[in-house]
Amino acid sequence: MGAIIGSALVGQLVGFYPIDAAITAGLCMANRGGSGDIAVLGACKRMPLMAYAQVSSRLGGGIILIIGSVLFGAWLTK
Question: Residue 11 in contact with residue 21, Cβ under 8 Å?
Fold first, then answer.
Protein backbone atom coordinates (compact mmCIF):
# COMPACT_ATOMS: atom_id res chain seq x y z
CA MET A 1 0.00 0.00 0.00
CA GLY A 2 2.88 2.34 0.75
CA ALA A 3 4.39 1.93 -2.71
CA ILE A 4 1.03 2.60 -4.36
CA ILE A 5 0.16 5.67 -2.28
CA GLY A 6 3.70 7.05 -2.38
CA SER A 7 4.03 6.72 -6.13
CA ALA A 8 0.59 8.26 -6.68
CA LEU A 9 1.52 11.29 -4.57
CA VAL A 10 4.91 11.75 -6.22
CA GLY A 11 3.33 11.26 -9.64
CA GLN A 12 0.78 13.97 -8.89
CA LEU A 13 3.54 16.33 -7.72
CA VAL A 14 5.44 16.00 -11.00
CA GLY A 15 2.33 16.28 -13.18
CA PHE A 16 1.36 12.66 -13.93
CA TYR A 17 -2.07 11.19 -13.45
CA PRO A 18 -2.00 9.72 -9.92
CA ILE A 19 -3.83 6.52 -10.92
CA ASP A 20 -1.43 5.80 -13.79
CA ALA A 21 1.58 6.53 -11.57
CA ALA A 22 0.22 4.27 -8.83
CA ILE A 23 -0.38 1.44 -11.29
CA THR A 24 2.94 1.55 -13.12
CA ALA A 25 5.25 2.50 -10.28
CA GLY A 26 3.48 0.98 -7.30
CA LEU A 27 1.89 -2.20 -8.60
CA CYS A 28 4.19 -3.15 -11.45
CA MET A 29 7.30 -2.72 -9.30
CA ALA A 30 6.05 -5.34 -6.85
CA ASN A 31 4.64 -7.98 -9.19
CA ARG A 32 6.27 -11.02 -10.83
CA GLY A 33 7.93 -9.42 -13.85
CA GLY A 34 6.60 -9.35 -17.39
CA SER A 35 3.66 -11.69 -16.86
CA GLY A 36 2.68 -9.76 -13.76
CA ASP A 37 2.81 -6.51 -15.71
CA ILE A 38 0.43 -7.97 -18.29
CA ALA A 39 -1.91 -9.19 -15.55
CA VAL A 40 -1.95 -5.87 -13.70
CA LEU A 41 -2.33 -3.69 -16.78
CA GLY A 42 -4.87 -6.02 -18.36
CA ALA A 43 -7.01 -6.03 -15.24
CA CYS A 44 -7.18 -2.25 -15.09
CA LYS A 45 -7.42 -1.84 -18.90
CA ARG A 46 -4.26 0.26 -19.20
CA MET A 47 -2.17 -1.80 -21.65
CA PRO A 48 -0.61 1.31 -23.31
CA LEU A 49 1.39 1.77 -20.10
CA MET A 50 3.38 -1.44 -20.77
CA ALA A 51 6.65 0.37 -21.49
CA TYR A 52 6.50 2.21 -18.16
CA ALA A 53 5.58 -0.99 -16.35
CA GLN A 54 8.62 -2.78 -17.79
CA VAL A 55 10.94 0.00 -16.65
CA SER A 56 9.36 -0.08 -13.19
CA SER A 57 9.73 -3.87 -12.95
CA ARG A 58 13.39 -3.76 -13.89
CA LEU A 59 14.16 -0.92 -11.48
CA GLY A 60 12.27 -2.67 -8.68
CA GLY A 61 14.18 -5.90 -9.30
CA GLY A 62 17.50 -4.05 -9.32
CA ILE A 63 16.68 -2.30 -6.06
CA ILE A 64 15.77 -5.63 -4.43
CA LEU A 65 19.08 -7.14 -5.59
CA ILE A 66 21.06 -4.21 -4.16
CA ILE A 67 19.24 -4.33 -0.83
CA GLY A 68 19.67 -8.11 -0.66
CA SER A 69 23.38 -7.94 -1.39
CA VAL A 70 23.92 -5.28 1.28
CA LEU A 71 21.94 -7.22 3.88
CA PHE A 72 23.56 -10.58 3.08
CA GLY A 73 26.98 -8.96 3.02
CA ALA A 74 26.41 -7.49 6.47
CA TRP A 75 25.01 -10.78 7.75
CA LEU A 76 27.87 -12.91 6.42
CA THR A 77 30.63 -10.71 7.86
CA LYS A 78 29.38 -11.22 11.43
Answer: yes
Contact 23, 47 (CB under 8 A): no
pLDDT at position 48: 92
CA neighbours within 13 Å on the CB side: how many for 3? 12
Give the side-chain half-sphere CA count within 13 A for 68. Answer: 6
Q: Is 37:53 a contact under the CB 8 Å cutoff? A: yes
Decide: pTM greater than 0.85.
no
What are residue 11's phi and psi, to 5 degrees?
-60, -40
29 touches 2 (CB < 8 A): no
The answer to whether 38 and 49 are in contact (CB under 8 A) is no
Q: Across all residues in the chain, what is the average pLDDT?
A: 87
